[in-house]
Amino acid sequence: MSSVSAPRYLTRFQCLADACEDTCCAGLVVPVSDARWRILRDVVAGGPDAARVEALVVPDPGSGSGAEAAYITKREDGNCSFLDERKLCALHRKYGEVALPDACAMFPRVATRRAGRLEVTGSFGCPEVVRLCLLAEDALEQVPVDASLAARPEIARVLGGEDAWMVHSERVRAVALRILERREHPFASRLFMLGELARRLGPFYFRGTEVFREEGAEALLTQTLATFEDAETLAALHAAVSQVSLPGGPWAGICGMVLRSRVGAVGSERFSGWARAVLASYGGPQAAPDDVWARYAARRARLEPVLGERVEQYFRHHAVNHWLRHPFTDAPSVLDYVFKLALRAAVLRWVLLGHPTVVALCERDDLAATEDARAQLDAAAVECFQLSAKHLEQSSELHTLAQGLSGGAGPDSLPRMLVLLQGL
Ligand code: SF4
Question: What keywords tag this UniProt record (predicted)?
C-alpha cells in the first residue's frame, strides 16, 4: 500500500460547524460531478427532499465533458441553498457524508498523489486550518496518516509525468522547503534565496523544457540545488539582500492596490468590513503611498522587537503550507511561483499590520510579549490569513498585478522582486 502523509496540524482538525466564524460554501460555487449527482438523487429518491434536489442542483451549462455536470444554486445571501438556519449542511445532517459533492466532502483537505504517495494538506480558506497551521510550533511536521484523513482519497489530484519539469519537481520542492526553514536568516532573505534559486534554474528548468534531452542538464540541476543547501552561499545571499534599501512607498502602494481591487468585488460582509478597517488604518483608500508606508514602518518598528518571532512563525508556516498545497509545477517557472509567493507575503504583512487589533497593540505604551498580547495578535493573524486566502490570494486581480510587476518572470524579475521584500 502506498504511504499517506499530512502535516501534523491536519490530524488535529475538527470542523467547527455552527461555531465557525465563516462558512465554507459562502460565496463559492459548489460543483457536482455526474457521479455524485446520481448518488445524491438516489439517496433522496422518494423522500421529502427529492424535489428540492431536483430544483436546487442545476446542470452546469459550461459542462462539456460531464466531469462537473452541475452546481448547487446559491441563496440571495450567497450561501448554499442547503445550508440550514444553524449554518449546518442539511444534506449532510440528514443523509451523511455520502450525499455530499466532492468539494464539500474534501474541504478543507486537499489530496495530491505524487510518485505513488498520497499527500494531504489543508486549505487556508478554512479559519480552523489557519489557526492550527499558524499557531502551533510543530504544525507542519509531516506525519504518516490513514488515507481516510483525505476524506475521498480516490479523487486525489494525480501529479506525474515523464517530462523533466515533473520528474525533478520533488527535489526542487525539498530544497525550497529547507530554505524556508533557515530561521537564522530573516524571512525576506529566505524569499530572496528562493528567488535566486529560481533565477538560476530559469534558463534550463521550466515547464515544457527540452534542455534535459541534452547531456549535462541533470548535473547542472543537481549542482544548482546543492549550492542552495550550502550555508555559506545562503549567508552571502542574505548579506547581499541586506544591503539593498529601496523606498517603501511603492511597496505600500502595491499592497493597497491589491486590497482595493477586491473591495466591492467580493460579496462577503465579513471581508468588506475587515478590508475597509485595514484601509482606514492607513489613512483611507486615497492615502498617499509614502504616508501609508510611514504608518506601516512605525508599527513594524514597534511590533518586531516584541512579537517578531511570532510573526515570523505565521509567515514561515504560510509559505511552507503554500508549497505543500499548491504545486509549483502549475506555474510556468519556479520564478513565477516565487514571485507570486513574495507578493502574497507582502500583502499579508501589510494587512496584518493594518488590522485594528494589531494597530491597537502597537499603540500601547506597555506593549510586551504577554500571553494576552500574543493571543490578540494570533486572532488578528488568523482573520487576515484566512480572509486573504479566500478572497485575495487566488484572485485574478492579484495574478494580473503579479504578471505586470514581474514582467512575465523574465530575467528582470528578481530585481523587481526586491521591491516586494521591502516591507517584510
Ligand atoms: S470553514 Fe472549516 S471549520 Fe468552518 S465550517 Fe467550513 S470546514 Fe468547518
Answer: Cell projection, Cilium, Flagellum
- Ligand 1 binding pocket includes 16 (Cβ within 6 Å): yes
CA of 213 to the centre of ligand 1 (A): 47
The ligand 1 atom nearest the CA atom of 20 = 4
pTM of the model: 0.94
Q: How far apart are CA 281 and CA 285, in angstroms?
A: 10
Name the residue with the closest Cα to ligand 1, atom 8. Answer: 15
Per-residue pLDDT tens digits for 119-139? 999 999 999 999 999 999 999
Determine contact, residues 295/283, Cβ cutoff 8 Å: yes
Angle ∠(112,25,105) on CA atoms, nearest 5: 40
Residues 6+ apart with CB under 8 A from 187: 312, 315, 316, 319, 345, 424
- Whole-angstrom Cα distance, residue 250 to residue 292? 10
| CA 228 – CA 402 distance, rounded (Å) | 25
CA distance 191 to 186: 9
Give the pLDDT confidence score for residue 394 in this predicted structure.
82
> Does 68 sit in the ligand 1 pocket, CB within 6 Å?
no
* Ligand 1 center to 84 CA (angstroms): 15
Cα–Cα distance, 10 to 4 (Å, whole number):
13
Q: Looking up cell 514597534, which residue turns up?
A: 302
Q: Which one of 10, 14, 20 would you pick to mutate in the ligand 1 pocket, going by the greatest count of ligand atoms within 8 A of its CB?
A: 20
- Looking up cell 489543508, which residue turns up? 122
Sign of CA pseudo-dihedral 263, 191, 125, 292? negative
